[in-house]
Amino acid sequence: MANIPVAAMIWMAWLRVARALALALVVLALGAFVARQFNLLDKQLVFFPSKVIQSSPGDLGLAYEEVRFETEDGVDLHGWFVPGTEPATEAITLLWFHGNAGNIGDRVENLLLLNQAVGVNIFIFDYRGYGLSEGSPSEKGMYLDAEAAIAYLRSRPEVTNDSDLVLFGRSIGAAVAVEMATRHDIRGLILESPFTSLRAMARLTHPVLSRIVPFGLVVQSRYESLGKMPHVNSPVLVIHGKADETVPVEMGLELFEAASYPKRLHLVDGAGHNDVYLFGGDEYFNAIKAFIEGDDG
After folding, report:
1. Pick the catalytic residue: 78, 98, 244, 266?
2. Is 244 a catalytic residue?
3. Coil/strand/helix, residue 31
4. How confident is the model over 241-264, as pLDDT tens digits?
5. Which stretches of the chain are assigned E, i.e. beta strand?
């Protein structure tokens, strides 16, 4: 057997390495494509639904209606309609888009306090895949769910037009509310603990991974709220806890700066991501009520 020159041996070794790397890249790209197409990583990294509702408004003595409604793509959703308590605000309905974890049953205490302090009608519902709602969550699906919620409220006698609606979104729900506010001329938009975009959140929570793996290859969801804010024509109230450990208060400030006037900012000392209404107390609820009523005081 003839001896193989050293240079040729080195070249063959590099060729094998190159082929292995090429194959690994193909496998990685294929895996990323499949993950993105089937929304796999979104379900692992973005959405944390719970199907079991642990509590209802009735458990706290709050009057409410069980609601079922259907989306444009045929998904059955579940929610609660809580009537207002004050004549001055009973013609206004607050549509609540909750965060990415749990379900509406985890918001009952907050729902009661909001009802008592603000007095408007409140409609809170679960996105597809959450609580008693059918389906599986996705960004596109959440927007379809939100449109269905607005369409349902329009069918009720309490809502005569979009100007009777205030959209209230918390965390990922704030991104849903922003998208709806770009489509509808509503009375007002309240964003609590909002983030600027999912890409910005990925850079924050997974700084190393986000540099190695192109975000758009593996995750479908975008929630690009910052770029949408200039297209919101309704009054805006941004609420953020100064000690938010999940979404930095700077993101809330960025969204506030990007919003058009009229706009308001309410920062809560000591509040984290999920306890703003607890730390905020009366000032928090008074800020929401004043915004909804259009009080410039």
Report:
1. 244
2. yes
3. helix
4. 999 999 999 999 999 999 999 999
5. 48-49, 65-70, 76-82, 93-97, 101-102, 121-125, 165-170, 188-192, 236-241, 263-268
| Backbone dihedral angles phi then psi of residue 34, each to the nearest 5 degrees | -65, -45
| 78, 184, 266, 273: the active-site residue | 273
Length of the chain: 297
Q: How far, in Å, CA of 28 to CA of 106, rounded?
A: 38
* Cβ atoms 161, 134 nearer than 8 A: no
For 14-23, 54-63, 130-139, 206-215, which range has the lowest pLDDT when averaged over its residues? 206-215
Among 70, 77, 35, residue whose Cα is nearest residue 213:
35
Cβ pair 141, 77 in contact under 8 A: no
Q: Which of 138, 171, 225, 234 is catalytic?
A: 171
- Is 171 among the residues known to form the active site? yes
The CATH code of domain 49-293 reads: 3.40.50.1820
pLDDT digits (tens, 9 = 90+) for 38-83: 444 445 468 999 999 999 999 999 999 999 999 999 999 999 999 9
| Alpha carbons 23 and 281: distance in angstroms, whole number | 58
